[in-house]
Amino acid sequence: MLSLTEKEVDLIATQLLKGNVCFYQVDKKKIHHLPDDEDHFNYDLTPEEEDILDEIEDQPDNFAEFTRLEPSQEHQLMQDFVDRRVKERTLAEDLVSALSNPKATTAFRFLLDGSKYKEEWAEFLRGKYHDWIKEQVDAFNYAED
């Protein structure tokens, strides 16, 4: 049964938020992170990263994969943040408007970067990623049973 410390959850969350995908090696209790190939399709893997991928392919049951939230899930988090945390009506309206644009995440973060909510958003998002990682641990453990 897989269980992670809060420090491990935080490390995985940090890597996911940077756009990486993480693999937890169960037998060695080690976290590996690689660029998410959907975001870095022209990225050349290092020999070490190639070796990790080969090992994952050879022993898939020994690795738990941790992925980012889907864009629709992140979009919902942004909407929830506005609904629950942003008290200034003008900013809230601007953020909701940003979410309806094609580059919603970029526009949303740009607006928050210039506001008093920047740190609160970062904490909110990190907390939601901690929850997401714990859900993935539960799914991994359920699949093992």
Question: Can you give a write-up of this model?
Answer:
The protein is mainly alpha-helical and about 140 residues long. The protein folds into two domains: about 5-70, no CATH class; about 70-125, no CATH class. Helices cover about 60% and strands about 10% of the residues. It has helices at about 5-15, 45-60, 70-85, 90-100, 105-115, 120-145; strands at about 20-25, 30-35, 65. Strands 2-1-3 form a three-stranded antiparallel β-sheet, with helices on both faces. A hairpin with a 4-residue loop joins strand 1 and strand 2 (about 30-35). Helix 3 packs antiparallel against helix 4. The longest helix has 27 residues, at about 120-145. The radius of gyration is 17 Å and the shape is elongated. The model has no long low-confidence stretch (mean pLDDT about 95).
Give the helix tally: 6
Mean pLDDT: 93
**First-residue to last-residue Cα separation:** 9 Å
- The residue fraction in helices comes out at 55-70%
The overall number of domains is 2
Strand/helix succession: HEEHEHHHH
- The percent range for strand residues is 5-15%
Report Rg. Answer: 17 Å
According to DSSP, the number of beta strands is 3
Please specify the SSE layout and strand pairing:
Layout: H1 6-17, E1 20-25, E2 30-35, H2 47-58, E3 63-66, H3 71-85, H4 89-99, H5 104-113, H6 118-144
Antiparallel strand pairs: 1-2, 1-3
Helix pairs in contact: 1-6, 3-4, 4-5
Briefly summarize what is shown.
With about 140 residues, this protein is mostly helical. The protein has helices at about 5-15, 45-60, 70-85, 90-100, 105-115, 120-145; strands at about 20-25, 30-35, 65.
